[in-house]
Amino acid sequence: MDFTEVEQARAFLRQHLGISRLVHAQWLSQASGAEVYLKLENETETGSFKPRGALYALHRHCQRGSVAGVVACSTGNHGAGVAFAARRCGVAATIFLPRNPNPTKRARIEQLGANIIEVAHDYEAAREHAASFAREHGWYFLEDGRDPDLRVGQATIGCEILEQLPAVEVLYVPVGDTTLITGVAFAVKQLKPEVRVIGVQAERAPAYYLSWQQRRVVSTDTCDTIADGLATRQPREENVRLLGELVDEMRLVSEQ
Description:
The protein is of the alpha/beta class and 256 residues long. It has helices spanning 3-13, 26-32, 50-64, 77-89, 103-111, 123-137, 148-164, 179-191, 207-214, 237-246, and strands spanning 22-24, 37-39, 70-73, 93-98, 115-119, 140-141, 170-174, 196-202, 249-253.
């Protein structure tokens, strides 16, 4: 990834997604003794930051050749992002979800017109089914945490934050499959290297926290957390490497 790609992504995404608000969080500021701001990616059409990366990645893939369809595995937000991107690009989408997914996220994917297939067990099982489906049908597998174009799209958030709040000193970024934090950190470190980037995971889903600490892939047997969008138990080596290069600190938070 280079910064030219991030600028290209910004130019493209401006045609489809507005700049999300950055708002002062008065209660959090009073409680912490710092001036705290929130980047409201929840105000996108799908309720998260995921459409940035998904739309840019699918757009780039379409530029490289015809796309019969796009398939993804997700706990919800990435699936909605891919469904949104597919609708904008005029491509069929099938999303694999672990059984009994978050009902709000499932409904959002359905509303965006994607076909949904629920499979047994967890995210890793959904990933295996999605990969098999993509091979069988010749579809594009837009895999969260692995497709490099996703990271480029998410990096645009970092650019916006620095424009909206040039005095920013520290960014706290949730860590699921790492495309958000590594994309944001890459952009911020290019533009203002002194900004500290701190990743946040749930105590009951600490795989990337442990991997960042030990600078190697550390998997966990379970990732049972209410923060389902952060529930990753099998880190990828490339993502661990990027976390080590770009992220200044990692923290864990309790379910409470």
